[in-house]
């Protein structure tokens, strides 16, 4: 029997359940092909492309060094490749949420393989929980995070990890003869590098996680989202570390575990309700008539809203391919509430730029902000960008880091450029010329949003 192992976004040689599966089944396998399908990232930002292709290249090279060189090809060519090599079964991580296009996800891919009469073996490679096993007593999926967390948090256990030796697979693995050379081969990262970063985080920042996670001027969170989106680290291994070291600082470890449980929760919701990727989870809000003000959307996306905290966050996104969690909440609320623009447009913009893009966390993060999702923020709780700026970037360090044109202005004026128009002008920046005027009045918009939601509630 010939088997194909689909390795996209499972960029790890160690702790990889797909390899373990092949290792266990090797007696029945005559030929095994490691396949690395490439995603179409033509509409992604350059930073995201660099990261994806660079990491893919490094993973390819690691396997090649082990004399297990994978076959790199476009997704569209995988079926033909399987047919040419009489592959009758493919092994795939069926729980990946971070594809750039949804056509690569298991819902779509399964149909493609089924049509070609190729058996699909699904293995969990990105998440801890199996969705169908997380239902409540009424056999429904949890729709409120706190109930899900309360029920399933005690089930997190340290686990024995995978047993396999990749070298022992050499006799059955057919190695690709051609080379693969991406133009981004110096970019991206490796499992080892991400593992080292994670260990550093465990040594230092996790011990002040509850305090540090909202600190904007300097990122104090783990950036594990990036490693997880590309399958560079194994979630079971992460939970093992957290549970084993839990006593070091219970409060901080628990807070961190809680965030990872959010990731599980959103993954389960996306699996159970895939339609939530394009429509409001709450039915009553499906008829919202969002604003079609293209100019507002463009200004949000370009970081030209006149609210420095929002514009700095959008600059962070473009310059780094990342955005701080606090700011993801603030800019998404600004788009969906202050500008009253459809969350799906914001979700799509984030997909283009976020290196750690994950459909489940992104979609449900956006629906949370737009008040249309499960367990969403109630519509009447609407962030004020001015207040958020005062609270989380009091000294405007974050603002000035990403908007250097405001460097010379006193921090206290930068939270509300409309109110302090003249003071800012005196310090050398003319609002409307050197930096944009605020595109909306938060208080006016707030009234409009409250009234509109109230009518539908
Ligand atoms: C509008 C919006 C869009 C988002 N889009 C994404 C996305 O595309 N990809 C993504 O991974 N996360 C997304 N998040 C969740 C969160 O912002 C990121 O996971 C987090 O900022 C990543 O940084 P970190 O790894 O340093 O986080 P840490 O604070 O170190 O958290 C550790 C891990 O917990 C998980 N986590 C933390 N917060 C959340 C959360 N709110 N929801 C789900 N999981 C969480 C992540 O896996 C994260 O890596 C989004 C949140 C919002 C509000």
From TrEMBL:
Cofactor remark from the record: Binds 1 FAD per subunit.
GO molecular function term, any single one: DNA binding
Location of the Photolyase/cryptochrome alpha/beta domain: 1-128
Cofactor needs: FAD
Annotated binding of FAD, by residue: 209, 221-225, 256, 259-266, 356-358
Cross-referenced InterPro entries: Crypto/Photolyase_FAD-like_sf (IPR036134), Crypto/Photolyase_N_sf (IPR036155), Cryptochr/Photolyase_FAD-bd (IPR005101), Cryptochrome/DNA_photolyase_1 (IPR002081), DNA_photolyase_1_CS_C (IPR018394), DNA_photolyase_N (IPR006050), Rossmann-like_a/b/a_fold (IPR014729)
Site (Electron transfer via tryptophanyl radical) location in chain: 290, 343, 366
Database matches in Pfam families: DNA_photolyase, FAD_binding_7
Keywords, in A-Z order: Chromophore, FAD, Flavoprotein, Lyase
One GO biological process term: response to light stimulus
Annotated coiled-coil segments of the chain: none
PANTHER family per the UniProt record, alphabetical: CRYPTOCHROME (PTHR11455), CRYPTOCHROME CIRCADIAN CLOCK 5 ISOFORM X1 (PTHR11455:SF9)
Family under the similarity heading: Belongs to the DNA photolyase family.
Name of the protein this chain belongs to: Deoxyribodipyrimidine photo-lyase
Organism field: Staphylococcus simiae CCM 7213 = CCUG 51256
